[in-house]
Write the structure tokens for this entry.
Amino acid sequence: MRFTRSAPSLRTLGSPSPDDAPWRDLPHVAVEICLENVEGVRISARAGADRAELCDNLAAGGTTPSIGAVEAAIFAAGEEVERRRAIAGPHWAARPDAAPFGLRVMIRPRGGSFVFDSDERRAMIADVRRVAALAREMSDYTRPQKVGGSGGPLPPAVEVGFVVGVLTEEHVIDRGLLRLLVATADGAPVVFNKAIDATRDPVEAYSDLGGLGVSHVLTAGGADTALEGADVLQGLVSTGGPRVIAAGSVRPENAAQVVERAGVREIHMRCSLPGSTPLAPQRTDEAQVRRAVEVAHALPLP
């Protein structure tokens, strides 16, 4: 792999618009795995998951991973995707599974509330800026590849994005900080996390996010679990705002029920090894990921 300091930005090579990045409009229910190490990213990519949310310290609800972990995760996911494409042959781009692996990086300086002071805000903006710069530097993996002929560019191996959640003391979206984070993301997808479920009115908060550059919203509809909040999730989906990712006690065993009741096209879950305790390091169970992918990809799109 070569590194380049002059790689074009993610904004010029692929805006959040599906017209410019058609691979974001998946032909199946998408599976996103929440994890806290590079091993989990590699396992998720190998097992067929569509995305991974890379965090540190899931025991605290997930915090920002190190820049080294993000770099290693891009390598790991990219290697797995390239291996799959090599097996598929020279016409891999025409296959339904040609989409890049989505790597979503958590940006959260600590656990606890989603209200951040000025020092924490600076740290979050700096983290987004550094990850976006790393993605440009690793452009062989993370940007669309131009090819000859009249066809469009080939999808990248890995699409880097961000996961954020920022609120004010009044439990509403911190619009100012969110705008700064989205602007600093250099055109990469930005997901608003389950901080939305801690707002005073998740439905109102969701409507606010539509005009703030957020591509996806991770939520249980203000409930403890996605199934309990399924009616609210269905209502959010019907508004046509940012893509809704159902999260909250989603498992391979109930994934079909969540999709059917909530009408979502994307689900988010942990697939930790059996016997893992919440405070222990979380390792990803490949068998669970494969079950989740098998279930979700077989479902009809809502």
Q: What stands out?
A: The chain has ten helices and eight strands. Strands lie at 30-35, 51-54, 101-106, 158-164, 190-192, 216-219, 243-246, 266-270. Residues 202 and 298 are 30 Å apart (CA to CA).
